[in-house]
Amino acid sequence: MSETKDYGLDLHCSMILDEYREILPEAEEIKNEVISMLRKAVSDNNLMVAAVEGRVKTESSLAGKLELKGNKYHFLSDITDIIGVRVITFYTDDVDKIAAIAENLFEVDWENSVDKRKMHEIDSFGYNSLHYICRLPGHEQRFEIQMRTTLQHMWATMHHDTGYKSDVEIPSEYIRTMNRLAGMLELADDEFARIRTSINDYRRKVQALVEDGDFEKIPLNGDTYRNYLTLNPFDKLNKRIAAINQAEVHSTSLMPYLEVFHMLGFKTLGDIERLIRDHGENAYQLAVLQIGGTDLDIISASVAVQDLCIVYELERGGGILGLKKLFDTIDGESAYNRSRAERVISQASHLRFMQG
CA-to-CA distance for 301 and 250, rounded, in angstroms? Predict the structure, then answer.
């Protein structure tokens, strides 16, 4: 039988410590199960968090707590943080989402849970956690879940490391400076959440504008172009080109062409719509020249947009240098792109728009 350490506690506290030793294996199992459940729920709800972590209070830590506050506890079960789990989020509003997950997974002891965010003390930023005391269904052992942001966690850790709450008196100028920093971090926490909300609102607005087809009002950028591609704007021309050889259209990402459109000077989704409307026929005729005499039975979904860009560049007089720049933008700079441009111009010279 292994020896147990004597912490100089009275009989009552020693009995609580003995009970702790007995339930320690179960406490470790509960901690691991709670962490696993939370991580799965976070993933299932498509949330991103900085960490889901936990610990079981060490024997020496519990002994120290009993030494200071032993008369406060009748049984080990009165101590609610024997098992502690922490979820650290990136954004303040995600704390409430984690709380909703915890309420769904566990039995929450509302009487002993506390929302420290509502205390509004001037130096409380790093301790603005939401604390739930919970049980797993079918278990008696309680555990604590702390939910806070990354900046709040950083601040609390810094307080601990600097001995801010120790018995040593901290000079007032240091306290004042730390409180000013706390205010800055709290403002940053709020602003990060506000910016994310604003960006998400903007994306929803863009999606609605794209779905409504009001393309002239929509600036051309990564978000708007990605939403625009969900409408499959080049599919009609791709299918028409594929029909030349009864070919199959192989799916591929068209996001790289965003840089091409910017290079061509396009500013709105309306510019792409006009490209399709005004240059679609010439792009089709170019495709006929390129693949009509071949046995090609698979074409890339980028054929339509590439031929559209080619005829647009040719119609505005870009010539060999314009096409080389276009191919450099699509595939990366290469000496081969000049000869490729020369070959395309030779093919396109037979088209009516090049002869006018």
Answer: 6
- Go through 214-245 and write b for each residue having 16 or more CB atoms within 10 A of its CB, e for each that does not: ebeebebeeebbbbbbeeebbeebbebbbebb
Q: Two tokens at 120?
A: 């509004």
> For each of the chain's 356 residues, which pLDDT tens digit applies?
445 677 888 888 999 999 999 999 999 999 999 999 999 999 999 999 999 999 999 999 999 889 888 788 888 989 999 999 999 999 999 999 999 999 999 999 999 998 876 655 545 554 567 999 999 998 989 999 999 999 888 887 776 666 555 455 666 776 677 777 777 878 888 888 888 888 888 778 777 877 777 788 899 999 899 989 999 999 999 999 999 999 999 999 999 999 999 999 999 999 999 999 999 999 999 999 988 888 888 999 999 999 999 999 999 998 999 999 999 999 899 889 999 999 999 888 888 877 65
Alpha-carbon distances of 241 from 7, 229, 251, 312, 346, rounded to whole Å: 84, 19, 14, 17, 20
* Rounded Cα–Cα distance for residues 7 and 61 (Å): 11
Q: Which residues pair with 142 in a beta bridge?
A: 135
Q: How many CB atoms within 10 Å of residue 274?
A: 15
With beta carbons less than 8 A apart as the criterion, state whether 214 and 270 touch.
no
Q: Is 271 in contact with 320 (CB distance < 8 Å)? A: no
- Catalogue the E-assigned strands of 120-265: 130-135, 142-149, 248-250
Distance, in Å, from the CA atom of 43 to the CA atom of 20, rounded to the nearest integer, reads 33
Which domains are delineated in the chain?
Answer: 11-190 (3.30.460.10), 222-355 (no CATH)
pTM summary value:
0.62
Q: Are 105 and 139 in contact (CB under 8 A)?
A: no
